[in-house]
Amino acid sequence: MMNAAPIGDAPKPDRKFALAWASFAVSIAAFGLKYAAWVNTGSVALKADALETIINVVAAAAALWAIRVAERPADDNHTYGHYKAEYLSAIVESALVLVTAYAIGKTAVEGFLRPHPETAPWIGVGLNGVATLLNLAWGLTLLRKGRAERSPALIAGGHHVISDVWTGCGLIAGLSLIPLTGWVWLDPALAALVALNVLRVGWEMLRQSVSGLMDEAPDSATLTKLREVIAETATGALEAHDIRIRTVGAITFIEFHLVVPGSMTVGVVHEICDRIEAGLRRAIGRALINIHVEPETKAKHTGILLTSPPVV
């Protein structure tokens, strides 16, 4: 017997799409500020920072596409939905980040070979500081909303924006020292640090996206929580085994075998499954749950042993 749970509450694509549009607008504003900072100073480090911000613009545009595609309902060609589209967006962003790191590194090398003093450094520091504050506010918003919506595209964008904040803080501190110390070499050195930070963030984003595409199981804490929910809500059943869980974007797929007494009626079994499904959805939100019901002769005694008295 296969019992398929409804997916749960209806998604709110308009809210996620609005966040993606706002992210696109913020990334353009930040790029404008950083571009102005570079033009006014000629700083190699600020040029590197502006190059990195171009990726934010492209990534925000990719997130707009991915979120729209991910929220499409299942169809004949995609019977499990389009949720993985957001992982594709995050992978594209990761690849672009790595390309940008190379371009920034090349800029840093050129700065070491042909160092030159900055012009109007304090204007550059001020403009970059405004962009950094803008990114801080928006990055924290994206992370909070992305986790609430369970959106890989929004979370990846939030991590990238926050990495810009750390970069911006380092650049502001370093560039402020150049007019005070006369250490011209600090400019390309800061650009090299920007490249390294971009590489770090890009690799982490790529790793997380590949994990999602490969259906990596949730962390141990989540697995333990779901097993506890099954044990608490399966009153009347004997055992649950072969539990498999994967998360794809905003939805979790759960499959397991439920062992019940052979004398139990189909109606009672259905009530138990409904109770389990409701408990799982309360715990994790949207989910597609498949429960394969088996008689007690199929018990493996290796899964969740349910000690409550059977209901027949």
TrEMBL record:
<keyword id="KW-0812">Transmembrane</keyword>
<dbReference type="InterPro" id="IPR036837">
    <property type="entry name" value="Cation_efflux_CTD_sf"/>
</dbReference>
<dbReference type="InterPro" id="IPR058533">
    <property type="entry name" value="Cation_efflux_TM"/>
</dbReference>
<feature type="domain" description="Cation efflux protein transmembrane">
    <location>
        <begin position="21"/>
        <end position="214"/>
    </location>
</feature>
<keyword id="KW-0472">Membrane</keyword>
<feature type="transmembrane region" description="Helical">
    <location>
        <begin position="17"/>
        <end position="38"/>
    </location>
</feature>
<feature type="transmembrane region" description="Helical">
    <location>
        <begin position="87"/>
        <end position="105"/>
    </location>
</feature>
<feature type="transmembrane region" description="Helical">
    <location>
        <begin position="125"/>
        <end position="143"/>
    </location>
</feature>
<dbReference type="GO" id="GO:0015093">
    <property type="term" value="F:ferrous iron transmembrane transporter activity"/>
</dbReference>
<comment type="similarity">
    <text>Belongs to the cation diffusion facilitator (CDF) transporter (TC 2.A.4) family.</text>
</comment>
<protein>
    <submittedName>
        <fullName>Cadmium transporter</fullName>
    </submittedName>
</protein>
<dbReference type="GO" id="GO:0005886">
    <property type="term" value="C:plasma membrane"/>
</dbReference>
<dbReference type="InterPro" id="IPR002524">
    <property type="entry name" value="Cation_efflux"/>
</dbReference>
<dbReference type="GO" id="GO:0006882">
    <property type="term" value="P:intracellular zinc ion homeostasis"/>
</dbReference>
<dbReference type="GO" id="GO:0015086">
    <property type="term" value="F:cadmium ion transmembrane transporter activity"/>
</dbReference>
<keyword id="KW-0813">Transport</keyword>
<dbReference type="InterPro" id="IPR027470">
    <property type="entry name" value="Cation_efflux_CTD"/>
</dbReference>
<feature type="transmembrane region" description="Helical">
    <location>
        <begin position="155"/>
        <end position="178"/>
    </location>
</feature>
<dbReference type="Pfam" id="PF16916">
    <property type="entry name" value="ZT_dimer"/>
</dbReference>
<dbReference type="InterPro" id="IPR027469">
    <property type="entry name" value="Cation_efflux_TMD_sf"/>
</dbReference>
<feature type="domain" description="Cation efflux protein cytoplasmic">
    <location>
        <begin position="218"/>
        <end position="296"/>
    </location>
</feature>
<keyword id="KW-1133">Transmembrane helix</keyword>
<dbReference type="Pfam" id="PF01545">
    <property type="entry name" value="Cation_efflux"/>
</dbReference>
<feature type="transmembrane region" description="Helical">
    <location>
        <begin position="50"/>
        <end position="67"/>
    </location>
</feature>
<dbReference type="GO" id="GO:0015341">
    <property type="term" value="F:zinc efflux antiporter activity"/>
</dbReference>
<dbReference type="InterPro" id="IPR050291">
    <property type="entry name" value="CDF_Transporter"/>
</dbReference>
